[in-house]
Every structure is written in C-alpha cells, then in structure tokens.
Amino acid sequence: MKKSIFQLASIALIGGIVGRGFRYSLDVVISRGLGPDALGVFTFGLVISQFVIIFSRLGLDQAVQKFIPIYLDESPEKTTGVVVFSIGTPILLSTLISSILILNLDMLLSILGSGQRNILFIFFAGLPILAGFEVAVNATKGFKETKYAVFGDNIVRSGLALVLAYVSSFIYNDLVAVVIGYFAATTIGLFVMLFSIKSLGGFNSKPTTFEPRKLLNFSLPLVLLAAGGRLVSWADVMILGVYVSNVELGWYQAAYQTSALLLIVLHAANSIFPALASDLYESGQMQKLQQIYNTTTKWIALLSILGCMYLIVFSNDILSIFGEPTTQANNILSILAVGQMISAAVGPVGYLLVMSGNERVETANTIIVATINISLNIFFVQTHGALGAAIATGISFTIYNFIRLIQVWWLAQIKPFSLFNPASVISLVLALVTLALVVYLPLDGVFLAMVAGFLTLSVFALSNYILGFEEKDRVILESIG
After folding, report:
1. Per-position DSSP letters for 49-102, written without gaps between them
2. How many CB atoms lie within 10 A of CB 454?
3. Which residues cross the membrane (predicted)?
C-alpha cells in the first residue's frame, strides 16, 4: 500500500511540476507577446471567473473524491449517478450564472473599472466549461487514479493553452484569440476527462438513486471554505483589478507567479505527507509523526530560505523574461518571496490540522485571514498600488501560517520545529556565500541567474552530502519506501 501511495504521489508531483511550468510559461508568452497590460487583463478575467465557479460547483468537486470510492464497489449505478449529478449540476448552474453576468456585463464593468468588454464576455461565457472541467478532473481521482488528471489537466489543457497562446500572441497579436484559445484547450481537456471517466467505468451503468442530498450535505459547507481559501490567494488580484492599471496588475502577476515557485518544494511534500501522516495519526504513532513533520519542515525551510534569497538577488534578471521590469516589480517580487518563503517554511501544517480532526478550526482560520487580507489589500492598494498589495498579501500569509503553527502545537500537540543540525546550517551558509559571489561573474541577465541557481544549489547539495545527513533524515525515505 505504501508503495502504491508513493507511486500515485510521484505521478501527481511530476505532473504538477510540468503543469506549473506550462502555466508559468503562459504568463511569460502573454507578457512578451502582448505586453504586461494584456497579462493584467487576462489575469483579472481568469481570477474573477475562477472565483465565480466556486459557487456553481457547490463543493461537488470535493464530493466526487469522497463518494465515488464509497459507491465504486457497492453499486456501479450509484457511481454513475454521482458522476452525472456532480458534473452536470455545476455545468447547468454555471450556465445560469453566466447568463446573468453577461446580461449585466456593462454594469459590472462600471463597478470593476477594469478589463476589456470582449475579454470578460468570453470568460463569463466559458464558466460552464471551467466548472465541468474542474469537477471532471477530481472525479478521476475518486477512482483512485492520478494519471488521468495529470494527463488531462497538466499536459493536455495547460500544454495546449500555452501553444495556442503563443500563436495568438506572436502571430495574431490578439488577446481575444489568447482567451478563446484558453477555453478551446479547456474544452478539449474536458472531453479528455469525460473519456477518461468512461474508461474507468463512470458512465457504464444507468444512474439510479444515489442520495444527492447526502452529497450536498457534505459538499455545500465546503463552498465557504473554498471561497475563503481563494480570497486568501486572490484578493490582491481582484482589488488591483479595480484600483490600478492593467500594466501594473500584469507586473504584479509576473512577480507573484515567480514567487510562487518557492512552493514547489512544499507541493512535493504535500504529495506524500498527508497519506503518510494520516496512517501514523490513526495508529497513534505520534512520536514518529512528530519526527517526520520536523524533518520535512526543516528541509523545506532550508530550501525556501535559499530560494527566497535567490529571487531577491536576481529579481530583475528573472523578471526580464516577461519584458523590461520596473523597479516596483522587483520590489514586489522581493516582498512576495518573503511571504511565500514563510508559507513554505512551516511545511504541511494545514494538513496536520485537518488530519488531527480540526477541520472547523482550519475553516475558521481561512475565513478570518481572508477578511484580514481583503481589508489590508483595500487599504494598502489605495495608498501604495501594486506594492501595497504585495505588502498586504505578505502580512496575510505570515498571520495565516503563524496562527496554524500555534494551533498545531496547542491542539495536535506537535511541535512545529526542531533545532537544525550544524551540517545543514553550514551547507546553507556556504550556498548563500556562493550566491553572493556569483553576482561578480562576467555574465549578464537571465544566463547569469541560471548559472547562479545551478551553482548555489550544487554547493548546497554537495555540502550536505559531504558533511552527512542526520539519522532521523532517513525516516521519510524509510516510511515511504
């Protein structure tokens, strides 16, 4: 079983990295081909549409992952019923919401004061496609498979969207074509996911009574949690879309997506840690759970500190792949990098809260921090523009994770950190010294940043290898092996 979990997590991890690379490249292509203002318009439309479909999904994107495994062995008919209801309902509801938004588009534009009419029209018209796609992706996971979601979402949808964006940006020079291409890629991805569900047996029987009320009783409370979580992540873009120019929003998006690369290590841990931690918690092996969490957090923190310093030192060189960065954009990246470093350095703390039976506590955390984040963004954006959004978001991330750390310590009786061993600290110092010296190499621009990243990481890895790892660092590998 452990090997199976590790294999599934590995597929998800590799696919996630590929998908993140495609999505990051999509922003680069739009900014390079059409300018930062176009990236700002695209980002604002995408964030607004993705926030709206949270309410049309009704939490059914999570329900399919819970109820498909339950009904899969019990009744193929009930399984089909869950699949049809969970995908069909959001599509129908989002069609209704889409119609209302389109009919009131002019009024919304007068309130939002941002974006092109044609762009937002396409985003609103595409809501049913987005809603159906996201639920279908999660439905395949309910069949205890990850390769279908990885292929349909991270490879087909994200890869095709990148290709079409490149053609639209550099050949047709048209943002409308970029958005149409994005939804064309999502539509193809939806058909791929539906075909995958059929091959998994999800449409092989006639749907029968499958207790839709039971599904909705589980899913509806998750809408509030999902909306709160998105407000923590997206409040900055929503508010910037109202108060600042599209160019400024575009550079903010470039800086934010670059800073989010620091979370890759955390996502790697999250692909394995939850299932492992759940088994240990349920079996009462709290000491081993504590040890695994401390070890995981230590290495994520070390790599995040190193990555944060790298982004700060080479902020201008890295952002130059989007165009000619402004001083404000460099400062935004530095501030967001610190915030993302803090988010990554606490490790999979959210999973620990949920796994230890504190789901309501985590929901309360999300709602509280979302409220704080919105308030801070409104205040700071009006006084400092996009730089204010970075400050507000960084503060919100810090509060969010500090609260969670205290709760894990208090409620789950798990200490968040243990002392770093001297070898890892020395390795970090040597890597940071290398980073400081590399800037004097007779190189320039992105190439210098690439060389610096390679040399710094190599020194960190080699130093740890020579100085030796702690015995407890082998716990994770032994647990998943």
Report:
1. HHHHHHHHHTTHHHHHHHHHHHHHHH-HHHHHHHHHHHHHHHHHHHHHHHHHHH
2. 11
3. 39-60, 81-105, 117-136, 148-169, 175-197, 218-244, 256-278, 299-319, 331-354, 366-383, 389-412, 419-441, 447-467
Is the distance from CB of 120 to CB of 45 less than 8 angstroms?
yes
CA distance 280 to 477: 15
The total of other beta-carbon atoms located within 10 Å of residue 101's CB is: 21
Q: Which two tokens stand for residue 355?
A: 């796994």
User: For residues 202 and 139, is the Cβ–Cβ distance under 8 A?
Assistant: yes
User: Which residues, 6+ apart, have CB-to-CB distance to 442 below 8 Å?
Assistant: none
Cα–Cα dist 138/130, whole Å: 13
CA distance 346 to 349: 6
pLDDT tens by residue, 444-480: 788 898 999 999 999 998 998 888 766 666 555 554 4
The C-alpha R_g of the chain, in whole angstroms, comes to: 23
CB-based contacts of 304: which residues, under 8 Å, 6+ apart? 262, 265, 266, 340, 341, 344, 345
Residue 478 makes CB contacts below 8 A (sequence gap 6+) with none
Q: Is the pTM of this model over 0.70?
A: yes
Extents of the domains making up the chain: 2-210, 243-351+417-480
- Report the amino acid identity of residue 125: A
Contact 248, 40 (CB under 8 A): yes
